[in-house]
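#lab-general

N.A. 3:47 PM
ok so I finally got the sequence cleaned up, no stray characters, all 104 residues accounted for. can someone with queue access submit it? mine expired

B.Y. 3:52 PM
send it over

N.A. 3:53 PM
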Amino acid sequence: DCAQLRWLGLELFSRIRDIQPLSRLLALQGLSLEGSMDTAWRVETLSPLGALVGLRYLSIANLRSADRTLAGLFSLKRLETFRYAKWWKASEIARIRELNPGLE
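B.Y. 4:20 PM
back already:
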């Protein structure tokens, strides 16, 4: 049972496009979903991560989504660290920063 899992790091699970199962890991405080240095990990959407309202650390370095939006993360309001690639919309990054004033 992973219900009490606090930290999870996954790197370049390139065959996994649906991250919906992660939305059940409600105790997570830290999550890292990353591609490799040379290859982006592509998922359908980041929306399932919006259920993880206890997250303090989130890294989506070299992760892309087919819907090209971070809007699914706007429910996250406890982030202290947020790592992301430069291709995300500046307006959406600004919104996440606004919602998480404690971000480094």
